[in-house]
């Protein structure tokens, strides 16, 4: 990494370290970003990947692996309900607050630019 | 001894149903798009929260919670604040998951209802259950189970149901559902003298007497306003009523105004 790139990266890391860690390790794709926003806006929704794909206007083949990863990373709860695999926002209050902070932070353009930078880096 | 009632907060409708719905009952509101089914349901929830100390749930199979917050705000009802105050929970899910959830002990819906002490629920809309099966017998069974699940939780429910016909009678197959609910209210568009009016009729109220009039109503800035009954016309629920003999005579020979008049 060049000096210029180092400087840019350090600027992009300038955010709440808990949010930085969330973006780098858990909300590390744009689909996950969308899904996290959906569950933040619909905190009482429990539904299948098919339904969630429909609600978010995406293909279930794209959405389902991301839901599974979010569940493995503790952002969502995943359970079996009468043979259906369903997802809901985690009941862990600390994670819910972190998600709420992330969504709130996204209102700020500077934060969004930094978050997009990190998501793109993690997609490489 | 007077029966306990669950008022809707819509004065004209409460008057028609002797003060309100009976507690822990399932009450079907059926009508064409735009007739105000969801508004009526939201008004029922709003009245419960603000006037009866009865928190509520909204179970939606299509609309996002944000849509309800926005629609409610148009009538001056702050549903977002009710959520923050733990007086309301708006749950968007699918009929399949709802059905499975109600089968288990302490499912998510029951847990949410318990967490806020919910007494009322708006289910918007029951029409989505139709995508679970094409068999009308099975559909009736599923609906019956669903309704009993709500009653088990001690909830008084308003269930909306869409009717594709903008004007006119309900097809026979759709009336089947009326047998499994405790009350059945129809909202209809009616064309009279080239203008579209809205009509409300309570067809059934199990265990209680009710007003049999066909009433006019309007959606105002405060919600539904159920007014007096239609007069001077017959066949209102057909969607294209005709004048009564007296009204027709008056129109032909006395030159009186032939518009549908209300008391």
Task: Write up this protein.
- The complex is a heterodimer of chains A (124) and B (263).
- With 124 residues, chain A is mainly alpha-helical.
- Chain A has one domain: Arc Repressor Mutant, subunit A (Orthogonal Bundle), CATH 1.10.10.10.
- The two termini of chain A are 15 Å apart.
- The mean pLDDT of chain A is 91.
- Chain B is an alpha/beta fold.
- Chain B has a single domain, classed as P-loop containing nucleotide triphosphate hydrolases (Rossmann fold, 3-Layer(aba) Sandwich), CATH 3.40.50.300.
- In chain B, β10 and β11 form a beta hairpin.
- In chain B, α5 crosses α7.
- At the A-B interface, β1 and β3 of A face β3 and α5 of B.
Secondary structure layout plus pairing:
The complex is a heterodimer of chains A (124) and B (263).
Chain A: H1 3-12, H2 17-25, H3 30-41, E1 47-48, H4 49-56, H5 60-72, E2 76-81, E3 84-89, H6 93-105, H7 109-123
Antiparallel strand pairs in A: 1-3, 2-3
Chain B: H1 11-16, E1 26-31, H2 37-51, E2 56-60, H3 65-74, H4 79-84, E3 88-92, H5 95-103, H6 108-116, E4 120-124, H7 136-152, E5 156-162, H8 172-175, E6 183-192, E7 195-205, E8 214-220, E9 223-231, E10 233-234, E11 242-243, H9 245-254, E12 261-262
Parallel strand pairs in B: 1-5, 1-6, 2-3, 2-4, 4-5
Antiparallel strand pairs in B: 6-7, 7-8, 8-9, 9-12, 10-11
Helix pairs in contact in B: 5-7
Quick rundown:
The complex is a heterodimer of chains A (124) and B (263). With 124 residues, chain A is mainly alpha-helical. Chain A is built from seven helices and three strands, in the order αααβααββαα.
